[in-house]
Design a protein that fits this description.
Blueprint lengths: L2 H36 L4 E13 L8 E3 L1 E5 L2 E4 L2 E2 L3 E5 L4 E2 L11 E5 L2 E5 L6 E4 L7 E6 L2 E7 L2 H10 L6 E5 L30 E5 H8 L15 E4 L11 E4 L2 E10 L19 H7 L7 H4 L4 E10 L1 E4 L3 E6 L1
Parallel strand pairs: 14-15
Antiparallel strand pairs: 1-2, 1-15, 1-20, 3-4, 3-19, 4-5, 6-7, 6-13, 8-9, 9-10, 11-12, 12-13, 14-18, 16-17, 16-20, 17-18
Length: about 325
């Protein structure tokens, strides 16, 4: 083959390669454009405003209202306070809540300067270090699932035991970042497998509207407040139970994804102001008009639904007064 033929063959091969590359590029461009136009664009519709942000440092303890909070994957955080990162347990390590000890709702736990403080009616304030690395890590049981907690010491144990009646010994434990978290999906399959929490019942965020609470109060002889239902975020400027239809919401930079409704239990019958359990209201009234659809009984059984449980799709900072947007695709 002479030089002229070699040159012609090389030119032909280059043209073929160029055509193939060009065709592949056109195909990729077409796919990208097709995906762009096939994908439904997002639309944000204003549905309300954040009226309250509540952190419950101690599970079943008093809420701490804050104006600003970090919305993290495992829940709300404000300063040294982290939502449901403290837990009361028995000597055997079993979880204790206001379902068993209603007066727990009167206990407040605060943190400042590396110290935690316990307060309760007719009790002297108790202050102790948040970090106590010399104390044992206890194995605890929360809804039959294993989780750890750092023992907060004998003084905290004595304080709680005295406040709750002195018949049983109670201990306070603290969840630390290095500890193995719980997976809500182990108890409730509707949660994503990767979701993790410390001591909440299920997910990191429970959202409720003021209007829903007002609607319930209008049906009761005695009004109830949002604190009785222990939400993380309270929404104002919306209609009763609007929150039931918000599958995905945006608040500032925070994006929340609804997982399921919050099925209510006997804990709602504990008055947060007195620590007395009626075992009746408002649970009975909720059952009269807030039961699930027959198709959802395998999820909620006989529990009435009040509030919505969310996961944190995108972390950020929440402020009271921020507008809430429902995301529509």
């Amino acid at each position: 083959m002479d030089l002229k033929e070699l040159a012609a063959n090389a030119l032909a091969q280059n043209k073929k390669a160029a055509l193939l590359v060009g065709a592949a590029g056109v195909a990729l461009l077409g796919f990208g454009l097709g995906y762009k136009y096939m994908r439904k664009p997002e639309k944000a519709v204003r549905v309300g405003v954040v009226s309250q942000i509540l952190i419950h440092p101690l599970k079943s303890g008093k809420a701490v209202p804050v104006s600003v909070a970090e919305c993290q994957k495992m829940g709300l955080k404000a300063g040294e306070l982290e939502d449901r990162h403290w837990l009361v347990v028995t000597e055997e390590g079993n979880m204790v809540t206001a379902r068993q000890e209603p007066r727990l709702v009167l206990v407040s736990l605060s943190c400042q300067g590396g110290y935690a403080t316990l307060n309760g009616p007719d009790m002297e304030e108790l202050k102790f270090p948040v970090k106590q690395p010399e104390n044992l890590i206890l194995n605890c049981r929360v809804f039959s699932k294993d989780i750890q907690g750092r023992n907060c010491g004998d003084k905290a144990s004595h304080w709680l035991t005295t406040f709750l009646g002195g018949e049983k010994t109670f201990r306070l434990v603290h969840y630390e970042p290095h500890m193995k978290p719980r997976r809500p999906a182990e108890s409730e399959p509707l949660y994503p497998q990767f979701e993790q929490v410390a001591y909440p019942d299920y997910g990191p965020i429970m959202l409720l509207s003021e209007a829903s609470v007002q609607d319930l109060s209008s049906k009761l002889d005695q009004e109830v407040t949002t604190e009785r239902f222990r939400p993380s975020i309270v929404i104002g400027d919306c209609e009763p139970f609007d929150e039931d239809s918000w599958e995905e919401i945006q608040i500032g930079s925070v994006r929340l994804q609804r997982v399921m409704s919050c099925g209510r239990c006997i804990l709602t019958t504990v008055d947060p102001e007195t620590g007395v359990m009626s075992r009746k209201e408002p649970l009975e009234t909720l059952k009269s008009y807030r039961l699930c659809k027959p198709s959802e009984k395998h999820i909620y059984k006989k529990a009435p639904l009040f509030g919505q449980l969310h996961t944190v799709k995108k972390t950020g900072v929440l402020h009271v007064g921020e507008e809430v947007y429902k995301i529509i695709r």
